[in-house]
Design a protein that fits this description.
The chain is mainly alpha-helical. Helix content is 61%, strand content 6%. A two-stranded antiparallel sheet has the order 1-2. β1 and β2 form a beta hairpin. α2 packs across α4 and α2 packs across α5. It is elongated and about 55 Å long. The protein starts with 17 loop residues before the first helix and ends with a helix. The mean pLDDT is 90.
């Protein structure tokens, strides 16, 4: 039997460990979301801040607390909040941070675009397989915690 020759059509995807696939898929998800957000001229940190404000975080401190799990993953929160204000997406009224009508409209467009992007991730995956995948990943996370 001839030895296996590696080349451009060689597929070793089945040989890759789960960690490789998790990082690969995570990178693809990140890139996809970045493209969606870039369409509105923002990044992930802005999106997170918009959602925190829409969810009731009404001060820089409250937004910072809501985004605590994401610290160190983007520009400083003060810069993000200043940019959102300069885009007229947020405002501070009587010491409370809120979305403006322009910001609410932009967030609404982004909700649709992000939802569509997330749906694309699962295209061709039946609901049962998707739920099983999530359950397996949750179990693995528990095993490692």
């Amino acid at each position: 039997m001839a030895p296996h020759v590696h080349g451009p059509t060689c597929d070793h995807s089945g040989d890759k460990p789960i960690g490789w696939w998790l990082k690969h898929v995570d990178g693809l998800i990140e890139s996809s979301l970045d493209r969606v957000l870039a369409g509105e001229g923002i990044g992930r940190r802005h999106w997170q801040a918009l959602n925190a404000i829409a969810g009731g975080a009404d001060s820089a401190e409250a937004v910072d607390e809501a985004l605590a799990p994401f610290r160190g993953t983007g520009p400083a929160l003060r810069v993000v909040l200043d940019q959102l204000r300069s885009m007229h997406w947020t405002q501070e009224v009587e010491g409370r941070l809120t979305l403006t009508p322009t910001g609410s409209a932009a967030r609404g467009r982004l909700i649709v675009a992000v939802r569509d992007s997330r749906a694309r991730i699962a295209e061709g995956v039946d609901e049962r397989d998707y739920r099983t995948t999530l359950a397996v990943l949750q179990r693995m996370a528990r095993n490692l915690s």
